[in-house]
Amino acid sequence: MSLKFVERTINPVLGEDDAQAEGVLSPFEGADEGGDALKVLGLPSANSMFAGRDVRADEDAGPAVFASLTRVYQALQELVNDGRAWRFRIDHLAETDRKMLLDALGDGEVSVVITGVKGEGDVQISESVLPGVWKGRAETTEGTLGAEWIEVGAAPRALRELAATRPRDTLPVETLTPPRGAMNVMSVLAEIKERAAEWQPGVPNHVFNFTLFPMSPADSAFLAKTLGESGVRVSSGGYGAARVIMTGIKNVWAVQYLNGLGTVILDTIEVGDVPDAVLASQEDFEDSADRLSNIVEAYSK
Q1: Which residues, 6+ apart, have CB-to-CB distance to 238 below 8 Å?
Q2: Beta strand 206-209 pairing with 229-236
Q3: With the CA atoms of 34, 35, 41 and 42 taken in that order, what torsion angle do they form, in degrees rounded to the nearest 10?
Q4: Could you write out the DSSP letters of every residue in 168-232?
Q5: What DSSP state is assigned to residue 233?
Q6: Where are the beta strands (DSSP E) in 41-185?
Q7: Residues 288, 69: contact at Cβ < 8 Å?
Q8: pLDDT of residue 269
Q9: Res 29: pLDDT
Q10: What letter does residue 31 receive in the DSSP assignment?
Q11: How far apart, in Å, do the first and last CA atoms of the chain sit?
């Protein structure tokens, strides 16, 4: 099944052929059968967007590289001390300096792809090898570089900005007609609507765990089609791999956890802030600051 983004005008009345989903959130999985969720979008992973020509090992880092790494280190210290997030542009740097800076930061486990809407280009954001340090790249509608930046924070700024502006505010449960074969989807949608409307920043996320919850294929298909998508997907690799989809309803996220074979082992809906599967922690910030201090020292020699 090839996934397409659901339009913001919800028309969730399904025909008999629509209710063929296997697994609660399988309509979100697309055709990759548990593989890289970003392939479903027809887009490369965020990490691959930063690939450029190789920087030779014998090339010395210029003062711009050292200055940029120092700024990132100082930003991490501010984040550790007072929680202040921070972001700066790097597309003004010379190509060699920019590539060397990105190479020094490396590639981490989290990739974010944001599909542009209304004439906007796509955005790719990659976690660096230092959790809490992110590399961002925005493209124009023609596919050329629009902006490139480094940011420091628990999650990329764009995720929270889009979460507040792109999804719909309401879930019109009262106007929906469940499909034939539905069991529990209407009660689930009603609770999602209530919790999404009540959630406030600072309140812990509420998690709906569908792994052992009785949901028919018709329920699953109707749930996914009703919630829709907002064009934002996150893939987190490594231990405890996960993929996160910003649904078309504000404060509602689809989160799937995968085992080492790429099979979904936990299907959830989270209502609230950016899910924990994406966030860097205070301990991550502290560890990244320590590791980056060593990198800065190496580049200063």
Answers
A1: 109
A2: unpaired
A3: -140
A4: BS---GGG--PPTT-SSHHHHHHHHHHHHHH--TTSPPEEEE-SSS---HHHHHHHHHHH-EEEE
A5: E
A6: 86-89, 110-114, 123-127, 133-139, 145-152
A7: no
A8: 94
A9: 56
A10: G
A11: 54
Q: Mean pLDDT score of the chain, rounded to an integer?
A: 80
148: which DSSP letter?
A: E
Least confident of 52-56, 92-96, 157-161, 292-296: 52-56
Question: If phi over 0 gives left and psi between -120 and 50 gives alpha, with beta otherwise, what is residue 184?
Answer: alpha
Residue 274's CB: how many other CB atoms inside 10 A?
19
What residue type is assigned to position 180 of the chain? R
The Cα–Cα gap between 18 and 138 comes to: 35
Is the dihedral angle over the CA atoms 136, 157, 207, 249 positive or is it negative? negative
Query: Buried b / exposed e across 105-142, counting CB within 10 Å, b at 16+?
Result: bebbbbbbbbbeeeeebbbbbbbbebbbbbbbbbbeee
The length of the chain in residues reads: 301
pTM of the model: 0.81
Give yes or no for a contact between 139 and 145, defined as CB atoms under 8 angstroms apart: yes
Q: Give the percent of the chain with pLDDT over 70.
A: 78
The CA-based angle 170-111-81, given to 5 degrees, is: 85
